[in-house]
Amino acid sequence: MRTKIITWVSNMKVIFSVLAAFLAAYSAWEFALYLHHLKFVPDAMGVWWVDYTLEESLGFGPGRNEAGIIVFDMPAKTKRHLESGGLDWLENLPPNGRSGWQGRYRNWKSTPMPANERWTAPRNCSFDAESMGYHYNCPSVTRYLGALIRVDREVAQMVDEAVFSSGTYYAYGRVGMIILIPEHARIVYIYAK
Question: pLDDT tens digits for the chain (193 residues)?
Fold first, then answer.
């Protein structure tokens, strides 16, 4: 009986060790992904919380397309800067402390977004059954993604209302677009590559 208990305890130690190693690896991966997402926002905005992410790889192997949307909480300090300085504050943001293209934007603009942008033009809307399952409005920011991914309806509606009305700011980066929505205290990064 004693031998069975010792064997059982030994087996449980192995199982718990494997489980702990798996949890540690998973936590490290999630933390690295979190830090990667934060890189898409200028450092000076002080963002630290990721609210929503939806990212999909479309296809397989090198050169595959990727599309996604990441929603961050907007810090109160950033919201105050936008309300008091608007485009002037954005155009004078200090450069990021890290190298690379992420989080670097120029030519900030205020909304509403013009209808002459490729993805906002109503003439480019498709109302077939397949695409309407992915896009709730037309024009819609989900069409910027250029891929059929299912963005949460509430997120898509918040972003669509923000970019097609006044009070929001946006800029294009090397790969994606950043949208600052002070009314909802949110920062949205969308990309399609």
Answer: 677 777 766 777 777 776 767 777 777 777 777 777 888 899 889 998 999 988 777 666 555 557 888 999 999 999 999 999 999 999 998 877 766 676 678 889 998 887 776 656 555 555 554 444 444 555 566 666 655 567 788 888 898 888 888 999 999 888 888 999 999 999 999 887 7
Backbone angles phi, psi at 116, to 5 degrees: -95, 5
Tell me the DSSP string of the chain: -HHHHHHHHHHHHHHHHHHHHHHHHHHHHHHHHHHHHHTTS-GGG----EEEEEEEEESSSTT-EEEEEEEEEPPHHHHHHHHHHHHHHHHTPPPPSS-SSTT---S-EESSPPTTSTTT-GGG----HHHHTT-SSSS-GGGTT-S-----HHHHHHHHHHHTSSS-EEEE-SSEEEEEEGGGTEEEEEEE-
Torsion of CA 128, 132, 134, 136, to 10 degrees: 150
Q: Choose among 41, 86, 60, 91: nearest CA to 191.
A: 41
What pTM, to 2 d.p., does this model score?
0.77
User: CB-side exposure of 17: number of CA atoms within 13 Å?
Assistant: 6
- Other Cβ atoms closer than 10 A to 161: 16
